[in-house]
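Translate structure to sequence.
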């Protein structure tokens, strides 16, 4: 059974920096920070809808959880641990900054039942981190990751692509350095330019243009395969769909089904590899797992159209007992 999160947002609370890309109200759709009552309401609602506790985490996202006032952090942890003990949830997941982790904090988190910690690394290039006002270095990411693993927590790392002063070559190097750290999970966020951010200002001044969703999808498809090859699970790819993000977005790589765009790119690449030595005068049937047929065809059948534009006459069909991304090609009679 897949695991899920009961998500409680602490937007921008505790963050010591205003990062170039950050508008947490737009990202989370929430202005105010969480309270213990919010934790109670979220958990009780999840229980009402028959969530499976042993496969569910109580998750604090949005801001830098370990940088908020200690009393606020402890009150939220106390509320979460109460339900952890009652319903036997899988654990508590938090997200924070690499420079807001130390042994004292990790001991507290361990005592309150935190099981997974995600760090907003964003880039492993110090020049990119500096240009985007991150306020930490790549070494901070390495050091915090090492400590988190030593304390026995599940480690997640978050990276962004297309940031100011970065490019896809630097972003690929970030992915390679994250792979060296060996986190359990990764989230990949292509840059979305929001109103009332420094990136928004840079875009208005003509100093920065974020990659589009299409360009980012092609690149992130490559990253997805890199991480999965190393058995690092990509648990999020692209910002979650939100009316607030859509209304505040002024550029960049937002798409409500961004991961599906990336997976469609992978299917197109693999199909073209299979067809590379084939005769374009022949017609072919491309078989994929029937559960992923829509991904293989691409959104609005873009992959079928791309194959046609390259001179291949193909029909993509679903088939039982094929693995994800497994492709079979047969000639039509």
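Result:
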């Amino acid at each position: 059974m897949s695991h899920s999160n009961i998500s409680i947002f602490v937007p921008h609370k505790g963050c010591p920096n205003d990062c170039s890309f950050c508008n947490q109200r737009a990202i989370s759709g929430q202005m105010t920070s969480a309270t213990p009552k919010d934790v109670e309401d979220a958990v009780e609602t999840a229980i009402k809808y028959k969530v499976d506790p042993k496969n569910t985490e109580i998750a604090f996202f949005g801001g830098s959880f370990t940088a908020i006032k200690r009393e606020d952090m402890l009150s939220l942890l106390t509320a979460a641990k109460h339900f952890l003990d009652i319903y036997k949830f899988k654990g508590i997941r938090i997200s924070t900054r690499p420079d807001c982790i130390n042994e004292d904090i990790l001991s507290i988190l361990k005592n309150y039942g935190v099981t997974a910690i995600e760090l907003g690394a964003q880039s492993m290039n110090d020049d990119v981190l500096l240009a985007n006002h991150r306020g930490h270095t790549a070494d901070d990411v390495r050091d915090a990751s090492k400590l988190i693993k030593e304390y026995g927590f599940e480690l997640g790392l978050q990276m962004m692509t297309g940031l100011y002063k970065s490019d896809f070559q630097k972003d690929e190097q970030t992915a390679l350095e994250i792979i060296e750290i060996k986190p359990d999970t990764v989230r990949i966020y292509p840059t979305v330019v929001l109103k009332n951010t420094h990136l928004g200002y840079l875009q208005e001044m003509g100093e920065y243009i974020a990659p589009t969703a299409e360009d980012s999808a092609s690149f992130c498809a490559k990253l997805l395969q890199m991480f999965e090859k190393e058995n690092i699970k990509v648990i999020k790819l692209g910002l979650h769909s939100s009316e607030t993000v859509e209304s505040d977005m002024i550029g960049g790589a937002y798409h409500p089904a961004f991961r599906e765009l990336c997976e469609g790119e992978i299917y197109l690449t693999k199909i073209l590899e299979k067809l590379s030595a084939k005769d374009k005068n022949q017609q072919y049937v491309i078989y994929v797992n029937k559960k992923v047929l829509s991904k293989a065809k691409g959104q609005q059948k873009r992959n079928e159209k791309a194959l046609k534009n390259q001179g291949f006459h193909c029909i993509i069909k679903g088939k039982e007992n094929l693995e994800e991304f497994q492709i079979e090609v047969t000639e039509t009679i």
